[in-house]
Amino acid sequence: MADREPVGGVDNAWRRVGSVDNLTTITGVLWFDEAISYEELCDRLEERLLRFDRFGQRVGGRERAVARPYWETVEEFDVETHVEHVALPEPQDDETFQRFVGSLMSRPLDERRPLWEATLVDGAGSGDGNAVAFRINHSIGDGFALMYVMFGLVDDPDSIEMPMGIVPDPPSADEFADETAADGAGAAVERGESTTAGPAEGAADAEDGDGTGLSLGGGVLDTVSLAATAVRTGVNLLTQDDEIETSLRGELGTAKRAGWTDEIPLATVKAIGEENDATVNDVLLGALAGAFRRLLADRGESVDGRELRVTVPVNLRPMDRRDASLGNHFGLAFVPLPVGTPDLGERIRIIHDRMSPEKAGVEAFLMYLALKFGGHAPEPVLEWLMGQFEDRATGVVTNVPGPTGAVEFAGREITDIMFWVPQANDQGIGISIFSYDGAVRLGIACDANLIEDPGELSGAFRTEVDALAEDADADLASE
Fold it and tell me: What is the pLDDT of residue 171?
């Protein structure tokens, strides 16, 4: 492969917008039914993870303000320098593990090395199992890209079924060893080309699957209509009001907190959606709006008649067109959550009406272009650009669908998967929704200054889902 490849504009933007009190690092955890050893983990990562070039590359040229940074291969890379092995202190329960994951979120990655780390955690999970926590800088890829990486790590990628349809083949050992093919791909990147279709084309044909993932669909839009929509959307983005002031916004610190809900059967969420003529995504966002309403009410804050705005990543390249170059192929849409609406079903209907693929897609693509431009702009320009969107949202909410059945890693069944989305600018709350093996979980990443105990929000979310399930006469028992 080429020793150096320029860092793409959007990828570089996500690398640069991080700060000491808001790291742009994606955190994820895999739980195993039987403990995996440190040696087995390192062997699997060396064998499979390094087939994705970014995990053996660091970012060069960071110290030069004008020159474009580049990915450069680390000579004599040692995977063990990126993997640590720890044991949770007693009582080794979920609360202890959540505190540990939060402490990882507070720790910056070393930019002198490839931008990822893995931590094998004994005492996490139940029974004889343990867990591995990954931290990966957002510049390497988005949620769908990292899901593609997971395909390459599991024992039998061909057995994976995804709700959105076709699963692309991960890079094989033969492809990894094929220097000629890699050199060709590297040359394409150096010319500024993409080895797959661009996000504009991806935006036209991305599909929503069964509703567990948010992506742009709806066919090819009329060019004139699209241009008019883009102009209106751009004006709205630049002129929208600042976000409402609540205790969920404020000065950020370096201490972070992590949490997650119990499993919720995906069939239950679908049943709620059918009852309300809504998608899975509508239901989960509606429940989240209710959870924020409950949390603020418990803090003595009135939200009646008000809305709380979040940014929602919109996938612009479908999963079946992802490849080993990874990268970020998404934009951001601003979605007002109707926290001031007391009726559960009405909140879902409001969100359903607002989640127009056309509106969300155009808004997201404009944000994608802004990040692409800002990624290589001088620091004052990037700061100005990002400043246009400060004070516009309380947090970020992302929804990534995972495999519909259980998968194995080094002979162990992965019993559960969770990840946590990073935030940027002044946002201190990240909500991640992930479905796996017939169940869905909500993950919470938050600044300790805003939410000291993520259980406040996860408990409120579960209360909302319970109430919706009761209204829909849906079974909440685990499948």
Answer: 79
The closest alpha carbon to 376, from 43, 69, 18, belongs to 69
pLDDT category at 406 given cuts 50, 70, 90 is: very high
DSSP code of residue 262: P
DSSP string, 394-420: SEEEEEEE--SS--EETTEEEEEEEEE
Calculated CA dihedral for residues 47, 48, 51, 57, nearest 10 degrees: -80
Amino acid at 56: G
| Cα 84 to Cα 119: distance, rounded to the nearest angstrom | 5
CA 252 from chain center: how many Å?
20
441 touches 261 (CB < 8 A): yes
Phi, psi of 233 (to 5 degrees): -65, -40
CA 467 to centroid of chain Cα atoms:
27
Instruction: Give the H or E element holding residue 474.
Output: none
* Residue 379 token pair: 């620091």
The CA-CA-CA angle for residues 371, 374, 377, to 5°, reads: 160
Can you tell me the mean pLDDT for 355-369?
80
Contact 332, 240 (CB under 8 A): no
Token digits of residue 65: 């303000």
- Phi and psi for 385 in degrees, rounded to 5? -60, -50
pLDDT per residue as tens digits for the range 120-134: 999 997 778 999 999
Burial of 301 (0-12, 13-18, 19+ CB in 10 A): middle
Stated as kind and residue range, the H or E segment containing 210 is none
Type of residue numbered 178: D
Structure tokens at 336: 């007002």
Return the DSSP state at 36: P
Q: Which region holds residue 39: left if phi is over 0, alpha if psi is between -120 and 50, else beta?
A: alpha
Q: What is the pTM (predicted TM-score) of this model? A: 0.86
**Phi, psi values for residue 425, rounded to 5°:** 55, -130
Instruction: Say how far apart CA 51 and CA 331 lie, in whole Å.
Output: 27
Measured distance CA(387)–CA(377) in Å, rounded: 14
Bridge partners of 420, per DSSP, are 27
pLDDT score of 241: 76
Q: Which residues, at least 6 apart from 225, have a Cβ–Cβ distance to it below 8 Å?
A: none
Q: What are phi and psi of 357, to 5 degrees?
A: -55, -35
Mean pLDDT of 317-338: 90
Instruction: Please provide residue 5's backbone torsions phi and psi, each rounded to the nearest 5 degrees.
Output: -140, 135
Angle, CA 392 vertex, CA 388 and CA 394 arms, to 5°: 140
Q: In CATH, what number does 4-186+199-472 get?
A: 3.30.559.30
What is the token pair recorded at 325?
A: 């170059």
Over the stretch 29-81, which tens digit does the pLDDT of each residue have?
999 999 999 999 999 999 999 999 999 999 998 666 556 899 999 998 999 99
By the 10 Å C-beta count (0-12 exposed, 13-18 middle, 19+ buried), 252 is classed as buried
